[in-house]
Design brief:
Elements: H1 4-14, E1 20-31, E2 41-57, E3 62-67, E4 72-77, H2 87-103, E5 109-115, H3 125-141, H4 147-162, H5 169-176, E6 181-186, E7 192-196, E8 201-207, H6 215-232, H7 248-251, H8 253-277, H9 281-297, H10 304-314, E9 319-324, E10 332-338, H11 342-357, E11 362-366, E12 373-376
Parallel strand pairs: 3-5
Antiparallel strand pairs: 1-2, 1-12, 2-5, 2-6, 3-4, 6-7, 8-10, 8-11, 9-10
Bound molecules: alpha-D-galactopyranose (GLA).
């Protein structure tokens, strides 16, 4: 439920009480990195941090937004949606544009947007903004669009309006996750399955505090290399390639390494699901470790600070696995540990990471959270 201070802020800006509270969580990916745009497998969870919207319907077609975090106001008309200089607003605008296209017309809304998700840390603040926007429009318009289609519309907003060629993982994780469960997603068929996580364990997210401008350009370069690999191997996407098909000479060194990562990472996700279903947490941890090594050496999306975070984590007793999560080049690591190792983990990481890099890390412990939802505030 929304805290009183946000309701007060909403009332101060819009001079009435909000009608809906919408929550869209961030996500952390447990395994299956850089596989989604290759039509492969991923296993993210929604996290307890996210973006919230307080919303009320309008009688016209205007969308009036206030970002609490940026302390900025923005407004646009649903009949003429242009890009804004205010970056945060473009996520809402992009979603609105494709929702109008899909539904034929929407009524406007007032919204106060606030969140506790660090921006640019690789925890999908963009996807949470989009999912929050989609659910806000759904709340005030009551249209019937299922969650998967909403997720695709959010992805389209990011790809075509914001201009980032991301895959589908983040939007689906923010929309479709269930509390206590990881979300297994087949990015080709878009079939999903909820997989319970083992009891007595925690997921920890450690922020390297490294933010790199090159994420988007390097990300697009990796996508391109994967497409090249698929073309040379004459498959629709790397999802269809097997380890035996990977010919170093035919592909060339760089493309070979990228393809090898994707093909093996897909296999790791399938093994990881089996490990969870059999209660083999140790194997799950080993697969996380292998994923990191592959992202570091084959896909080359790690950096010194992420490697240091992983190494420190793995030196702590009770830590089963650690790896970089998200696109890479900075951002966060994801760690699986026994619940009773929490304090040692926190102290060791903070101290040793500071000593090694000079950066103060931030650590969040999380259980798998509920995907996006709407609550009617009944006023
Ligand atoms: C980013 C993208 C996702 C996915 C990951 C890498 O988070 O938004 O679609 O490709 O990188 O796994």
């Amino acid at each position: 439920m929304p805290e009183e201070i946000f309701i007060e802020k909403f009332k101060e800006i819009f001079a009435h009480y909000p009608r809906y509270f919408i929550r869209a969580p961030g996500r952390v990916n447990l395994i299956g990195e850089h596989t989604d745009y290759n039509e492969g497998f991923v296993l993210p969870i929604a996290i307890e941090r996210g973006i919230s919207y307080l919303v009320s319907p309008r009688d016209d077609d205007r969308v009036c937004l206030f970002s609490f975090n940026f302390s900025e106001y923005d407004e646009f008309s649903l009949s003429d949606i242009q890009r804004s200089k205010k970056g945060w607003s473009n996520y809402v605008r992009g979603v609105a544009k494709f929702l109008v296209e899909k539904t034929g017309g929407l009524r406007g809304l007032n919204a106060l947007i606030y969140g506790d998700l660090p921006i640019g840390a690789g925890l999908s603040s963009s996807a949470a903004m989009e999912v929050g926007a989609a659910l806000s429009f759904q709340a005030v318009n009551a249209f019937q669009i299922d969650k998967k289609e909403l997720g695709l519309i959010c992805q389209r907003a990011e790809n075509e309006f914001v201009g980032m060629r991301c895959g589908i993982m983040d939007q689906f994780a923010s929309l479709l996750s269930e509390e206590g469960m990881a979300l297994f997603l087949d990015c080709r068929t878009l079939e999903t399955k909820n997989i319970p996580l083992p009891r007595g364990h925690l997921i920890a997210i450690c922020d390297s505090k490294v933010r790199r401008e090159l994420v988007s350009s390097e990300y697009n370069k990796r996508r391109q290399e994967c497409e090249t690999a698929a073309k040379i191997l004459v498959v629709k996407s790397l999802r269809d390639a097997t380890p035996e098909m990977l010919d170093r000479e035919k592909l060339g060194e760089t493309v070979y390494k990228r393809a090898k990562h994707v093909v093996e990472e897909n296999l790791r996700v399938l093994q990881a699901i089996e490990a969870l279903q059999k209660g083999n947490v140790a194997l799950f941890g080993e697969l996380m470790k292998a994923s990191h090594i592959s992202l570091r050496d084959l896909y080359e999306v790690s950096c010194r600070e992420l490697d240091i975070l992983v190494d420190i984590a793995l030196s702590v007793q009770g830590v089963l696995g650690a790896r970089l999560t998200g696109a890479g080049f900075g951002g966060c690591t994801v760690n699986l540990l026994k619940e009773d190792s929490r304090n040692t983990f926190e102290q060791t990481i903070k101290k040793n990471y500071k000593e090694a890099t000079g950066f103060e890390t931030e650590i969040w412990f999380t259980h798998p959270a509920q995907g996006g939802f709407i609550i009617s505030l009944g006023k």
